[in-house]
Batch of 2 targets.
Target 1
Amino acid sequence: MSAEFFNRDMELFIDRRMDWKRYFTLRDGAAADVGEVESYKLILRTIGEICADIGAAAKDHWHEEVQLVDGQVVVPPHIAEGYRKLAEAGLVCLTLDAKYGGQNLPVLLNTAYLEMVSRADASLMTIVGLQGGVAHDIQKYGTDEIRERYLPRFASGELQGAMDLTEPQAGSDLGAIRTRATRRPTISRRARPTGSR
């Protein structure tokens, strides 16, 4: 059943459509070694096996929803269990650098991961998709202190990423938001004009 998740099309893409030599040369320089590709495929096969288990457990529970109980978010048990399985296998933040506990998987192959998790349980995919996105942004744009503080906890599954959309007219349509942020020079308290707060 795991072959339904990490399927022949994915493997053909990895083997035939991706120019790994070029990728590794761009990433690592002239001493590129494409041997990592077999490790990537092993990781994806493992994810396929876990997703087969997650999918079987989720099959009869897709109607269950997340609930807010006494101010706490309560995730349906099958989703929490699927997340636990991925976290225990070290497979919640695949694109993170290994020094933070990630698999250092190319972002392109992360799409195969998200496809497999989505087929197993679409709700779980939104959780791990946001997880990886937030962690990847911290890795790319965060300070060293922030990376060291949070990324190992994202990779272990201890922390989860989230996205908040707050505008009433936008709902879940990120493209419909109207809020904009503009960077402006900082004015120190001492330099403020008289009468301003």
Target 2
Amino acid sequence: MTDSDDWRVTISLTGQEQAAAPASLPEAEEDIRRQLGRGVAVGAGDTQIFLYAGTEADARNAERTALDALAQHDLQATSVLHRWHPIEEEWETPDVAMPQTEAERQAERQHLEDAESAESQASGMARWQVRVELHSHHQAVALARKLENEGQPVVRRWKFLVVGASNEDQATELAGQIRREAPPDAAVHAEQSGVGWPFIPS
């Protein structure tokens, strides 16, 4: 997330406009883009417009401009302002306090790790994973067997391996271990899991 995307305004059409994208919305969107210029990024869906700005003041100014432009096209809408939380990696309302010191940031990170671990433990599914891309099927089979002998639950897909982890720290640590054991040209990535891979609770 870049600095210019720290604040987001979500504008949603209301009333009859909510059921389907009105014909006047594209024209209204173009008016909004023209009035806001390059300082605010504008995105749009069927019945929503998203404004991304670097400061709260810029976001609120953009919000007023956009709502006025929609009104000129006889479109009714509501809006909500959010701020990106870099540790929680979620959009939060402005009243949510951001960590200011390293101790506060560390506490936030620990809170996130604990929450991810608790969710993984409760479901038996990994929130994070280590994905390994190898250059041959033979390498994948050999590394999978080695990791399985060490007690890791490995999912193998031809030349790819996936190992589940309960949180980001565990995935990062596991990725480092696998890099030491994998062939030098293997690509090893710690990432959030898009699939509910199983994992062994620690």
